[in-house]
# Entry
Amino acid sequence: MGVAWEVIGVIDTEGDCAEWSFPADPGAVRAARGAVRGRLRDWGLDSVADITALLVSELVTNSLRHATGPIGVRLVRPTHLDAVLLVEVSDPLPDPPRERVALPEDESGRGLQLVAHSSRRWGTRPGAAGKTVWFELAVPQ
# Structure
């Protein structure tokens, strides 16, 4: 189900890897969630499927709001880091996202807060033509 493409700013990693590219349209969020859940189920990582799908949804939504090109999603289960899942969402917009404090009446602005509070660690990396937002989740053993 994965489509081969060049993920922006990819760091070479050994281990299981899955990547997809989605067009910048509203269906990308649902498609990304489904792809992520399916791969995690295949890898036997159902325990982190809900939180991973939620965080990917938030980051893909951010990309849809600000970028016009394809959105990449990549999952890596590195062999050298036990019990860690690396998740990356890339888009062609070079500007890094900014975490902000959303007011109770705001309808948006909580995505990066969710990523920051739910992941082991997270960050951004610039690429030649865009950026990648990544996060790591601890995988219960």
Notes: The CA atoms of residues 9 and 31 lie 22 Å apart.
